[in-house]
User: Fold this.
Amino acid sequence: MEKIRNYTEDEFGIFLISELTELKDIELTILKGHILTEFAINCYLESISENKNSDFFKENFNYSSKIKLLLHFGNYSGPGGEYVIKSLEILNKLRNTIAHSLTINHHLIKEFLTMLRKISPKKGNFNDENMPEQIRLEGGIAFVCGMIFGRYCEVRNKKQ
Assistant:
């Protein structure tokens, strides 16, 4: 995980694209997207932690708890921030639906993309209704990861 912590925003973007665009299965896109967003969350939470030795990749917090930490300590209460939090909660529901019932909830995918459109109504593949659902989902996951990892890079750069 040290490698991810040292990525620039551009390097993280390339990493996301390489991880997401190779997938041909929407279930894997959801599962891998969940993992990738958690990587971004872990980096950001470490950067805002008062403990210089924090390692959220090893901490025993589940995804839902990490979202709550973002909400309470990550400065996501401002304009648009609530949509980032809500999109992560929806992505977690999507992942849990697959994990517990082996089904995809397409309504949740639409809800996830709707949340992201509230943040960025014109940019990104996730806004193009003519694109296949999986490509829109990949774009949405990359977008929310980028938003979180971008904040991580800002904090990291200020500390250096």
User: Anything to note?
Assistant: Residues 44 and 152 are 4 Å apart (CA to CA). The chain has seven helices and no strands. The mean pLDDT is 93.
